[in-house]
Amino acid sequence: MLAWLNNHIEIVVAILSAIIAVFGALVSRNETRKQQSLQMENLRHSIDSQSLAWGNACIDTLNRAAMFARTRQHQANDQSFFQQRVNMLLALSSLVERGRLFFPNIDPQSKGVEKEGAYRGSRPPILDALMFAYYEVEALTRQGGPTADNSAEFIEDCRRLLVSELQAHLDPRRRDTVVDRYDDQRLDQRGDAIERSNALLSTLKSRRPGINLGERKETLQ
Which of 35, 115, 151, 163 is the most buried (most CB within 10 A)? Predict the structure, then answer.
C-alpha cells in the first residue's frame, strides 16, 4: 500500500486537493447564504423601522385630528380655527405622500395608467384611512353642523384601520418577502381591510353628501 502511494503520489495529492476544494466551496457557499440572509434581515429591519416611524407619526396626527374635531367649538375665533385646520390638512396630506414609499397602490395596471407611476391603481386601505380623515377635517367648521357631532369618532375609526394594517405589515411571522410583502398580498387576504375601508368611504359620503371625492382622487389617490 505504501509503495502504491509512493508511486501514485501525484494522484493522491490531486484527489486530496479536490476533496479540500469541494469542502471549501461548500463552506463558502453556506457562509454566503448566511451573509445574504443577514443582509436581507437587516434590510427588512431598516424598512420596518422607517415604516414604524411613519406609522407613529400617523397615529399622533390622527389623534390630534380627533381632538381638534372634538374641541373645535371651543376655538377662540374663526381665524385660529382655520389656521389649525390648514395645519392639520397639510400634515395628513404629507403623511399620505410619505406612506406611498412603503405602501404602493394596488393593481397599478387597472386604473390611472395615464398618471405618474406612484399614483396608478387604487390606494391601499392604510392610506385610505388617512385620506378619509383628511376629507372629514376639511369639512369641519368651528360651529359644527348636522353631521359634525361625531367627527372625532369617525376619525378614530380611521385611526383604528390604520393601526390594524400597520400591525399586519410589521408582523414578523409574515412570510412575504421584504420589499413586496404588502403589495403582493393576495386580494382575499386583504379583503377585510378593503371592506372596512369601503365602509368608511360609505360613511364619509353619507356624512358629507356634498364632498367631491372624484376630484380628490385625481390628485391625491
Answer: 151
- SS in 3 state form for 108-144? CCCCCCCCCHHHCCECCHHHHHHHHHHHHHHHCCCCC
Give the Å distances, CA to CA, from 152 to 2, 8, 140.
Answer: 91, 88, 11
CA–CA distance, 116 with 91 (Å, rounded to integer) = 22
Residue with cell 453556506: 30
Write down how long the chain is: 221
Average model confidence (pLDDT) for the chain? 78
Kindly report, residue by residue over 91-131, the tens digit of the pLDDT: 999 999 999 988 988 877 777 667 787 777 888 999 999 99
Handedness of CA 17, 20, 23, 27 (dihedral sign): negative
Centre a 10 Å sphere on the Cβ of residue 92 and count the other Cβ atoms it contains: 24
What is the domain partition of the chain in residue ranges?
Answer: 54-220
Q: Report phi then psi at 101, rounded to 5.
A: -70, -25
The pTM (predicted TM-score) of the whole model is 0.66
* HSE, side-chain direction, 13 A CA sphere, residue 68: 25
pLDDT-derived band at 147 (thresholds 50, 70, 90) equals low
| pLDDT per position as a tens digit, 189-209 | 567 888 888 889 888 888 888
